[in-house]
Amino acid sequence: MAVTEKIDTLVNLYHNDKLSHVYLIETNSISQATNDILNLSKKINCENEYEINCHKCNLCNLINQNFLPSLIIIEPDGNNIKKEQVIDLKKRFSYKALYTKNNIYILKEADKLNLTAANTMLKFIEEPGENIYGFLLTRNINNVIPTIKSRCELLSLQYEDNQINDIDEYKKVAIDYISKIELENSPKIMYNRNVILNNYCEKENIIRIFQEMLKIYFEAYSQNKKILALNKLTKVELQKRINLIIKFLSDIDSNANVELLLDRFVIELSDDYD
């Protein structure tokens, strides 16, 4: 069964009130699997009939920007997922979901739960709250602690090489774009036109580049990861950039002129240096 069919099956299970409260997913692409679970979250939480790029509500936009309170993504802090991260998840999900009926969490690289974190996670899995769904991702299901594994519904999401490379491509472009606009003094407007628009003329491609940029800036703001181009930025400066990207994604989603939006983005970014 193809990955898209498996995701659709999960959606159908949800609508028939048969979706398990936690899945352990073995995958060859954590990034792509995360993206598919995010799409699953859009479909099961949509109050309307879900459509790609619809404008009936702000749900998909909040999910894309990782700003939906009822959706939490956990990934390793250094080499491990720590107990404190799981405790924070339990605390945040002890309240009723905001904006949606369900609370959903994605735990990347579940095999990196340290022992105390795994024990805390085990209690959370054994005593799930109402309308809480979890998706634990791993590249090797055999590396996950057996007590966790035994309490999860097992699922495999395996992707073709071209699907994985496609995700990596946008991330690489995002990193390169950030490096150019943050480090180089060359005219940024010309870079937008000569590089971005010439190579990524479709609006959907540019949206994916800026979504990757948002993740990078947000990770830097949260002090999880940093690329060289962002080392010099303060939290205030990072927040300004996050806000600019969120505004860009909101405007481009409203069918505004892409070239003008790109120009405005780098102009407003340049104003930050004045």
Keyphrases for this structure?
single chain; 274 residues; alpha/beta; Rossmann fold; 2 domains; globular
Structure commentary:
This protein folds into two domains: 3-159, Rossmann fold (3-Layer(aba) Sandwich), CATH 3.40.50.300; 162-271. Helices cover 54% and strands 10% of the residues. It is built from eleven helices and five strands, in the order H-E-H-H-E-H-E-H-E-H-E-H-H-H-H-H. Strands 2-3-4-1-5 form a five-stranded parallel β-sheet, sandwiched between helices. Helix 1 runs parallel beside helix 2 (30-45), helix 4 (83-92) runs parallel beside helix 5 and helix 7 packs across helix 9. The radius of gyration is 20 Å and the shape is globular. The N and C termini lie far apart (55 Å).
Give a quick rundown of the structure.
By secondary structure, the protein is of the alpha/beta class. It has helices at 3-15, 30-45, 59-64, 83-92, 115-126, 146-149, 161-183, 188-199, 203-221, 235-252, 258-271, and strands at 22-27, 71-74, 103-107, 132-138, 153-157. Strand 3 (103-107), helix 5 (115-126) and strand 4 (132-138) form a beta-alpha-beta unit.
